[in-house]
Known about the structure:
single chain; alpha/beta; Rossmann fold; 2 domains; five-stranded parallel sheet; two-stranded antiparallel ribbon; elongated
Amino acid sequence: MVKNIVFDLGGVLIDFKPERYLAHIGFSEEDIILFTKIVFYGEEWNEYNSSKSNTKQTEQKLMQSYPQYIDKIKEIFSNINYKYILFEMKDTSNYLKELKDKGYDIYILSDLSIDSYNYNKQFEFFDYIKGGVYSFEIGTTKPNENNYKILLEKYNLIPEETIFIDDRLNNIQIANNFGIHGIQFVTLDSVKEEIKSLEKNN
Length: 202
């Protein structure tokens, strides 16, 4: 019987759109493509998400890695504002509340920095969450097995009673290895159908 449903944040409950921020500060289309990739999807940002770096350290590392772009990197970090980067995916957050109202315990398993976490906490769906494990707290990011182990142990979750929803297939595959019912978030409708199917077998 499924009792617990675990959500990822980025790409599931939160739309991560650094492109919008870069457009807001006046970057060209070409620069938006380039700096979205090297700043927000690079190794340095991943380290920032796992609490190994703060924003200043992340900026310094990026300038060392890309000395040809020092001015652009400085501009990005001097103006950074999460209200132009992080957006609530309201259809999914409404569904989360529906699941909570049905009696499921809701948890979060997500890779994000403490700054992103503090910004995201304003969203109403956090009121319906029983607990969460976040990369900035534990120092590792998915698909590291440590993230899943900590979640299961911290909340005494039984894998076979747990669903995990994430937009990245490699993260789902690790969940499956633990015996968790992994569902890749492609569309909200597809997630609902898979959960309905699991509910029929409860």
